[in-house]
Specification:
Blueprint: H1 3-13, H2 34-45, H3 50-64, H4 77-104, H5 130-158, H6 171-196, H7 199-210, H8 225-232, H9 245-255, H10 257-262, E1 268-271, E2 274-278, H11 282-290, H12 302-305, H13 314-331
Antiparallel strand pairs: 1-2
Helix pairs in contact: 3-9, 4-5, 5-8, 5-9, 6-9
């Protein structure tokens, strides 16, 4: 098949995709060195992208919305309810706002949308509606479990059972921990994600999330309660590494509302035809389409190192389909 034929076939499969094969944006690629590390840091942190935006939201939320650390020393209904309510409102505001803009208001039509189809309806979904199904799992099990992990973590910090970071005593670690958390989460997510693709676990738990082949903002945090528990367990890192409450809140928002941002189904937010905010990645969209590939994210090398990387090419699709066929045979 010629290069032109491959390009035409790809256009039929997708509404939009970036240039293929996908480039290697991993932190540990062949160009790894001081210069590449600096460029990686600039690309990820020194512009208004998802990570920096979530740090800003976490800082404001800690200052204005969440209970102070001193209040969390003793479990009580009021501060736990306050924490749950803030998490619920943040999830609704971010996931709901993105859904309204892209899918109700249709703010940029289908420009930069990966999948050409609309979000689903029918018997596959609870309530016969993909959005309502996704909202249910995100706002019940998702917000509930992330709140439990957050409440326990804040209680541990407040009582000295987990190490706490005081900004003025160690400002370097305070800022470095923000950079470390997405790296840690990517490592944790890759292995938990592969674990959930073991046929026994996939059929019973992870398949609920994978009903979302064509994803929308509410799809990101829509999971079976068992998967939520495993996914959110990355927050246990705060029990062993010195953390400030803002780090904990950032991690909560990164796992919950942040998943809504990366599952919008669109690559970027366009304002006056200019890309202003990176959102979903084609890297993860390929996972939702072909299942047995791209378990991690494009910033870390785990898929490339362990043979599960899909670069968007036809040969990668064939290799992935072979793995998928093996998995379905095991499910029988």
């Amino acid at each position: 098949m010629s290069e032109k034929d491959v390009e035409e076939k790809s256009k039929c499969q997708w509404n939009y995709h970036p240039d293929l094969p996908l480039e290697n944006y991993s932190l540990f690629n062949k160009s790894f060195g001081l210069q590449y590390l600096i460029l990686w840091f600039i690309r990820n942190w020194l512009h208004l992208g998802e990570k920096l935006l979530l740090v800003i939201v976490a800082s404001i939320a800690w200052w204005l919305l969440y209970p102070p650390l001193e209040e969390t020393r003793i479990f009580s209904f009021f501060w736990i309810f306050q924490t749950w309510l803030v998490n619920m409102l943040l999830m609704i505001a971010i996931a709901g706002g993105l859904h309204w803009y892209f899918y109700r208001f249709k703010g940029q039509s289908k420009n930069l949308k990966f999948d050409r189809r609309d979000l689903g309806k029918g018997r596959l979904w609870n309530f016969s509606n993909q959005v309502h199904d996704n909202m249910f799992w995100s706002l019940t099990s998702g917000v509930g479990q992330v709140t439990i992990f957050q409440v326990v973590t804040m209680w541990l910090l407040a009582n000295g059972y987990a190490p706490i970071n005081v900004f003025f005593e160690n400002p370097g670690w305070f800022f470095a921990f923000f950079v470390f958390l997405p790296i840690w989460s990517a490592f944790h997510f890759y292995w938990i994600h592969r674990f959930l693709h073991v046929p026994f676990l996939y059929k019973r738990y992870h398949s609920l999330h994978h009903r979302n082949v064509n994803v929308g903002p509410w799809s990101g945090f829509s999971m079976h309660p068992v998967e939520h528990f495993l996914y959110i367990s990355s927050m246990c890192i705060h029990w062993v590494l010195a953390s400030h409450p803002i780090h904990v809140i950032y991690h909560v928002i990164y796992l919950g509302p942040g998943a809504a941002m990366t599952h919008t189904g669109y690559e970027n937010l366009l304002i006056k035809d200019k890309r202003r905010l990176a959102l979903g990645t084609f890297y993860h969209q390929l996972h939702h389409r072909y299942y047995e590939c791209n378990y991690g994210n494009e910033e870390m090398p785990w898929d490339r190192w362990f043979g599960t990387f899909h670069d968007g090419s036809e040969s990668a699709t064939e290799a992935t389909r072979s793995r998928k066929k093996t998995m379905h045979n095991l499910l029988k």
